[in-house]
Amino acid sequence: MALGAGSTLVAHSAPRWEQVVSSGPGHYYIDPASIAKDGDRRTFDSALDYRQPKTSAAGKSYQSVATQFQVNCRMKMARIVHMTYYSGSMLAGSVVERQGMLQDWMEVDASSPVHRLMRYAC
Asked: Could you tell me the domains of the chain?
């Protein structure tokens, strides 16, 4: 449970991941229940499940990443709010690394998996 507005307890269900795209590196998913709307903006949770394990800059192995995105549907721009890397597939296993990084807005390439996630959310 998490504290919501007005300090009331809000129960959150487990994410219900829907696969949006499968590409060379792996499978990209979105949790439809996580999509929050604010005008032209959407904030949502996504998961990337790699086909093969990857190695972080710190030399640690991970196989999946949870990412919270913010997108501007009208401007077709996105930014990453934070990322969490997991040792196992589909966000299982131990947390390998966390990065909180509200990035600058970037244009989304129409051929990228992020574009497909953005289209889903918008």
From this structure: 11-121 (2.40.128.710)
Place of tokens 């600058």: 104
Q: How would DSSP label each residue in the chain?
A: -EE-GGG-EE--PPP--EEEEE-SSEEEEE-GGG-EEETTEEEEEEEEEEEEEEE-TTS-EEEEEEEEEEEETTTTEEEEEEEEEESSGGG-S-EEEEEE--PPPEEPPTTSHHHHHHHHH-
Report the predicted TM-score, pTM, of the whole model to 2 decimal places: 0.84
Mean pLDDT by 10 residues, the chain (122 residues): 40 79 93 97 97 92 97 96 96 93 87 95 96
Residue 52, token pair as written in the block: 């093969």
How many residues would you count in the chain? 122
